[in-house]
Design a protein that fits this description.
The protein is mainly beta and about 400 residues long. It has four helices and 28 strands. It is globular, with a radius of gyration of 21 Å.
Length: about 400
């Protein structure tokens, strides 16, 4: 287990190990300097130059060197030259520091760096045996972590899969969405054997199990929702509204869907696959993730507006609250723990973890140690811990809440 120091600035700066592609500008040009060619060689093979230019940055070569080491393997001379160049041209942007709010809850954040750098580790989950699993999207792998010993093992998936999310089943099999090869995949951890189920949509995104034993998933680019029956392998898919993203099952077994291409939430009937849509008041609202409290209220992150919100399905009433870091905070992931709302502000550096208490309508927030961003999806363990990740710095994290009553 590795505990990393707090940093007050970072950048979305993912360097894929051993990928030496042609520089990608993204409509921007890096400043001239002695290490410009090295940055183009190692960094714009994964990023556009615009991503680096718009980063939050670090003020010292030492800080840049530390974050780069979590992304790509460099020689000492390369690491020094790149860090000096980046510190000179891309210092911290104080405006992107999160607004952190004190409060009564104590947490502990533990982080582990995954073995293969540049994989974009993401979407950790807890398996029935207590192990933690994640997907390495860019490296097309699934990884297993023993949180007691820190031991890790990575399982290769089909190279074209580029898995987006992952869920376990009760028997210990690991299911993933093959976001690039249009499949739902099933991994047997004991043998490494993989079974693939092709989709029509071509880009399965996020999935969840329903108590009826079937797997439901979103396909963002295709604008579709799907259902897989693992007993038969049969997949049913339907067209829906723009860019369906997050998907959860409520305590009453209703399936809720977040839409990232329009200002809507929706329910999906697990049997008929009928969809009912709820329109949010602000046309600019875009929702990535959502969750449901025990009173049936649907909570969501309004990513585009820097808010969190609550929908009352019975009345259609929507109420929203500004996130502490403001309209550019870009809330992303969301989970419900003991009817408290946990989410992150992905637009800040470092990425901030936020807790909202619906009863008192108060916030509390913490900087995520590695802080590079972005937490895209989270998982609540059986013990009420929150699993997070930092895909840009190849880390899987666990948040322990000291007093779960809070």
């Amino acid at each position: 287990m590795m505990r990393t120091p707090l940093t007050l600035a970072a950048t979305v700066f993912l360097c894929h190990q051993a990928v030496l592609a042609q520089p990608r500008g993204g409509g921007a040009t890096l400043p001239d300097g002695p290490a410009k060619a090295l940055v183009e060689r190692y960094c714009t093979s994964c990023h556009t130059a615009r991503t680096i230019i718009r980063s939050a940055g670090y003020d010292t070569p030492e800080a840049w060197k530390a974050v780069n080491a979590s992304m790509v393997s460099l020689t000492e001379s390369e690491a020094d030259a790149i860090a000096d160049y980046l510190a000179k041209h891309f210092p911290e942007q104080p405006a992107r520091r999160p607004t952190l709010v004190n409060g009564p809850v104590e947490i502990e954040i533990d982080e582990w760096m995954v073995p293969t750098l540049g994989q974009r580790s993401r979407d950790p989950i807890e398996a029935p045996d207590g192990s933690i699993w994640w997907t390495g999207m860019w490296a097309s792998l699934a990884g297993r972590l023993d949180p007691i010993t820190g031991a890790m093992k990575e399982y290769p998936l089909p190279p074209s899969a580029r898995p987006h999310s992952i869920v376990p089943d009760d028997e210990g099999y690991i299911w993933y969405t093959g976001n690039s090869n249009g499949t739902i995949g099933k991994l047997d951890p004991l043998t490494g054997e993989i079974t693939e189920f092709p989709t029509t949509a071509g880009d399965p995104h996020t999935m969840t199990w329903h108590p009826n034993g079937k797997l439901y998933f979103t396909s963002q680019r295709a604008g579709m929702l799907g259902r897989l029956d693992p007993a038969t392998g049969k997949i049913d898919e339907i067209d829906t509204d723009s860019r369906p993203y997050g998907i959860v099952v409520a305590p009453d077994e209703t399936i809720w869907v977040a839409y990232n291409g329009t200002n809507k939430l929706g329910t999906l009937n697990p049997e008929t696959m009928d969809v009912h849509l709820y329109t949010l008041p602000d046309p600019g609202s875009r929702v990535r993730r959502l969750g449901v409290t025990t009173d049936g209220m649907v909570w969501f992150v309004n990513s585009s507006m820097g808010r969190i919100g609550r929908l009352n399905p019975a009345t259609g009433e929507v109420k929203e609250w500004d996130s502490p870091s403001g309209p550019r905070s870009h809330p992303y992931s969301l989970a419900v723990i003991n009817d408290k709302i946990w989410y992150n502000e992905s637009g800040m550096r470092p990425d901030a973890l936020v807790r909202f208490d619906p009863e008192t309508e108060t916030f509390q927030s913490w900087a995520i140690p590695s802080g590079v961003g972005i937490v895209r999806h989270v998982w609540v363990t059986r013990d009420g811990e929150l699993l997070i990740h930092q895909s840009s710095s190849n880390r899987i994290g666990r948040v322990t809440i000291k007093d779960l009553a809070n």
